[in-house]
Design a protein that fits this description.
This protein is an alpha+beta fold. The protein is 23% helix and 38% strand. The chain has two helices and eight strands; from the N terminus they run ββαββββαββ.
Length: 141
């Protein structure tokens, strides 16, 4: 009994470019990243009331969602830290907001603080920082 097999063909694979963050449509503010007990804080400070209200509204509607911090250079993402290993809370301040990402696990705390160190180093080298909640950019510097 003879069996026939179909010839094997390769389907071309297309390369999809990494997502790019358009910081032109995101509220601009001063972003400070700092380590804290159990993790890190991302502080967004605005110069004007309109920007402050916009950032606070974006944070309020995305409360409890996945938080990520991305460093961008020339429109391309250089580094993106997804805070999947911790709990992030957003607290409104007089001039913006403070997003605190913490974990009770010592190893997760190390990861969070390593992300803080990495992003601080990239910002010092000229990268733009963008904080996203649930994949939506909330503020950029």
């Amino acid at each position: 009994m003879a069996t026939a097999t179909a010839p094997v063909t390769q389907t071309p694979v297309s390369v999809v470019p990494a997502a790019q963050i358009n910081c032109l449509t995101v509220p601009k503010c001063k972003i400070t990243l700092e380590k804290c007990a159990g993790g890190m804080k991302m502080i967004c400070k605005c110069d004007d009331e309109v920007t402050c209200n916009m950032i606070q509204a974006l944070c309020a509607q995305s409360a409890g969602c996945l938080c990520s911090v991305c460093c961008v250079q020339n429109g391309s993402c250089v580094c993106c830290c997804n805070m999947t290993m911790c709990k992030c809370t957003c607290e409104m301040t007089a001039d913006g907001c403070c997003i605190t990402c913490t974990s009770g696990d010592a190893e997760c705390c190390k990861m969070i603080q390593a992300c803080c160190d990495q992003c601080c180093a990239l910002m010092a080298c000229g990268c733009t920082c963008c904080i996203c909640l649930n994949g939506m950019p909330v503020c950029c510097c």
